[in-house]
Design goal:
Layout lengths: L1 E3 L4 E7 L4 E9 L2 E7 L1 H7 L4 H13 L3 E5 L30 H13 L3 E9 L6 H12 L8 E5 L16 E5 L2 H7 L4 E6 L12 E4 L4 H12 L27 H15 L4 H21 L5 H16 L1 E5 H16 L19 H7 L3 H14 L12 E3 L4 E6 L2 E5 L5 H10 L4 H11 L8 H13 L4 H16 L8 E2 L4 E2 L1 E3 L4 E3 L7 H12 L16 H11 L13 E5 H9 L11 H7 L6 H15 L2 H15 L8 E2 L1 H11 L1
Parallel strand pairs: 5-6, 5-8, 6-7, 8-9, 9-10, 14-20
Antiparallel strand pairs: 1-2, 2-3, 3-4, 11-19, 12-13, 13-14, 15-16, 17-18
Helix pairs in contact: 3-6, 7-9, 8-9, 10-21, 11-16, 11-21, 13-23, 16-17, 18-19
Family: Belongs to the 5'(3')-deoxyribonucleotidase family.
InterPro entries: 5'(3')-deoxyribonucleotidase, HAD-like_sf, HAD_sf
GO molecular function: 5'-nucleotidase activity
Length: about 675
């Protein structure tokens, strides 16, 4: 039941078949008048509020029909490989292409059952062929006559399909096509759906919605409609996927659960891994076996059913696990992630940062060798070469500290105060996502809603505060923590290179100290900050691909509602299924957890961040050449002998000039 106070009108029901509303309005003090009107009649008769129109009326009923444009070759009919292009010009080639029956029947079903969707054919053809156009029409007449001549659009090969759409392309238009380039040209403003036909999608370039040709016609039709209604891959993973549909599972017998628990106990006795890890390994092996069997043409269905039962049993069996065991499991998984010999793991903007680990790894970038390697990679990607005799800019990701070596001394950029100045600097620095976030959060004060006096106070603090290297290490920890807690901008005072705040355990609140720039005061509050447990108020981390990564990301990146006091030796009992369901919520804006005992345990696992640091260090050391290592050691030794007085600051102009030189 919907009511719009602006029109004094109550929407009682909607007749989808006749596209009409039954509405009620007051005919007098004690009675209602009811009538049936079309959306157009309603729009002429009543004045609706803007909010109501935007949220319901215009979006769902007044706009023109949604349009679905369907490709032909490789989508409605098979794609046949040819050894010679001349074959495409031979009579009968296009007429004899076999239809992809599931797709054809799905389109028929959409046309028949969803009149609100207008279906068009949109296909490229060889304009210099005598037969191509006629044969494509013949194929449609035979297999899909429901698409009449007025809804068939043929585009000369090589032209952009959206240029030929009648009345221009609309945001709610959809293209079903097997070729990624066509889909890329379609978006934006419209949206694409890739049909996986068994031979395409070998590179995985397309990241939008994908549907498999081997689904049943009913499922494929419903999937297309669902996507057009706004469903996404994450919301409907069971139908929008690259892989073949999974087999249905059998009901789980209760007696299977204790059998699996006994299996876990035996495994644990024979090895040093925890029951938690044993279960994860077991499930992983089951998935691998099932994947192999499912791809076999004559797979043993009974065996697949038994594997399903085993998998359900593993998901539901309770497992006892202590906090140290859980922490060790996370540590081992981190080592696997970081020590696989792939240097790309260190490019945090593409991997670890995406998994919510940027705050932990940023601390490691205080290590000069790690920072140097990381920065050189970023500079190299941008085509920037450092001139002979000059060192690259070192970037501290978490608090966006830029420094370089001048006359053999490490100096800091400490007075970059205005948005205009930082804009110049940021245009030259190798910016990754975390650094860009820091720039916007810490320095670009023009975008903040603050008073002139507050702005001047910030600028004054920038000019007056002097930072030593030790100060900046502490400020890094401060900024790292406040950033992950999602503190609102207007609640934060900035002192140049850090956002200052601390966590008050007694009142369970974040308190702000607008003049906190003394290093001793910073040190005093860092411990409180590192253990702060609050409800996350900003973005949830992206949904991850593996359970281990989900667990790690959630525990490092998500905060909880209250502090915990669980001893290391205390044991909790939960099920693997509960754990997986818990972390599947991450990324769907569900930041608060319901399993209290699991909350209490996993809240402490954030200490696993120290192992991330260790892992990154090993990766760095294994990929730096011997000569570079020697150079780094000399730099470290030289820097360690410097006094705070030698660690001088430089102006923004000097920093900009230096960057322009290395360009």
């Amino acid at each position: 039941m919907l009511y719009d106070p602006a029109a004094n009108l109550e929407f009682h029901s909607y007749d989808a078949e006749n596209s009409s509303f039954t509405v009620r309005y007051h005919g007098g003090p004690d009675d209602y008048i009811e009538e049936t009107l079309t959306p157009e009649e309603l729009d002429k008769r009543y004045s609706f509020s803007e909010d109501f129109r935007a949220q319901f009326f215009d979006m769902n009923y007044i706009n023109p029909k949604q349009r679905l444009f369907v490709d032909q070759d490789g989508t409605l009919v098979e794609f046949k490989h040819v050894d010679c292009l001349d074959t495409l010009y031979e009579p009968g080639y296009f007429a004899n292409l076999k239809p992809m029956e599931n797709v054809v029947q799905a389109i028929k079903e959409i046309i028949r059952n969803h009149p609100a969707i207008e279906v068009f054919l949109l296909s490229a053809y060889l304009s210099d062929s005598k037969h191509a156009l006629d044969e494509k029409n013949q194929s449609l007449d035979k297999h899909l006559p429901e698409i009449d001549a007025a809804h068939r659009i043929f585009v000369p090969y090589g032209r952009d399909k959206k240029e030929f759409v009648p009345d221009g392309i609309r945001p709610n238009d959809y293209l079903l096509d097997d070729y990624t380039q066509n889909l890329i040209q379609w978006e934006p403003p419209a949206k694409g759906i890739k049909l996986l036909n068994g031979i395409n999608h070998t590179k995985g370039t397309w990241q939008g919605s994908k549907l498999s040709y081997d689904m049943s016609a009913n499922s494929l039709a419903q999937s297309i409609v669902d996507v057009m209604r706004g469903s996404t891959i994450s919301q409907r993973e069971n139908i929008i996927r690259d892989d073949k549909p999974a087999n249905k599972t059998l009901p789980l017998s209760p007696e299977k659960i204790p059998m699996f628990s006994d299996y876990l106990k035996n495994v644990q006795k024979q090895s040093d891994i925890t029951a938690f890890e044993a279960k994860a390994n077991y499930l992983s092996e089951l998935e691998e076996v099932k994947s192999v069997l499912t791809n076999e043409q004559k797979a043993d269905k009974k065996l697949l059913q038994l594997l399903d039962l085993a998998q359900q049993s593993a998901n539901l069996a309770p497992i006892p696990i202590t906090l140290p065991e859980l922490r060790n499991a996370v540590t081992r998984r981190l080592d696997d992630l970081l020590l696989d010999g792939n240097i790309n793991r260190l490019l945090l903007d593409k991997n670890l940062m995406k998994y919510g680990l940027e705050n932990a790894v940023a601390i490691r970038l205080q290590n000069p060798s790690a920072t140097k390697l990381y920065t050189q990679m970023e500079l190299s990607k941008l085509g920037i070469r450092v001139k002979k005799g000059q060192k690259p800019i070192y970037i501290y990701s978490a608090s966006v500290k830029a420094y370089f070596e001048k006359d053999g001394k490490r100096v800091l950029a400490k007075d970059a105060a205005t948005a205009e100045q930082l804009q110049i600097v940021s245009g030259k620095l190798p910016i990754n996502r975390q650094i860009q976030y820091g720039l916007n959060r810490v320095f670009d004060i023009e975008q903040f809603d603050i008073t002139k006096s507050q702005r001047q106070m910030i600028l004054d603090m920038e000019q007056k505060t002097e930072y030593t290297y030790e100060n900046l290490i502490e400020f890094t920890a401060m900024t790292r923590t406040t950033g992950s807690l999602g503190i609102k901008t207007e609640e934060v005072a900035m002192n140049g290179l850090a956002i200052d705040s601390f966590y008050d355990k007694e009142s369970n609140t974040i308190k702000i100290n607008r003049e906190l720039h003394d290093s001793q005061k910073v040190s005093k509050y860092i411990n409180s900050l590192s253990d702060a447990i609050i409800t996350l108020t900003s973005e949830s981390p992206a949904k991850l691909q593996t359970f281990e990564s989900r667990m790690l990301s959630a525990t490092l990146h998500t905060s909880f509602e209250k502090p915990v006091s669980m001893a290391d030796g205390e044991t909790l009992t939960t099920t693997f299924q509960e754990v997986r369901e818990l972390f599947s919520d991450v990324g769907e804006n569900k930041a608060s957890f319901t399993l209290e005992t699991l909350e209490n345990t996993l809240a402490k696992v954030n200490r696993a961040a120290t192992y991330v640091i260790r892992g990154v260090d090993k990766v760095v050391e294994s990929h730096i050449e011997q000569s570079q290592q020697q150079e780094v050691k000399q730099q470290q030794k030289q820097y360690q002998t410097q006094t705070p007085a030698q660690q001088q600051g430089v102006t923004t102009d000097e920093l900009v000039n230096f960057i322009q030189q290395i360009q």
